[in-house]
User: Fold this.
Amino acid sequence: MQIDQVEWLRRENYFLREQNKILKNELSETKKYLEDILTKFKDVDKGN
Assistant:
């Protein structure tokens, strides 16, 4: 089965949008995790 270029681009665009959503979510989670770690380090530093 062969698909035309427009259909291929539509599918590729959909795939990239979905990947972008996943990566944004992972980035947001990573940012929160790093902020939590930084807060803990700052709390430990205040105790010394």
In short: Helices lie at 5-47. The chain has a mean pLDDT of 93. The CA atoms of residues 6 and 12 lie 10 Å apart. The first helix runs from residue 5 to 47.
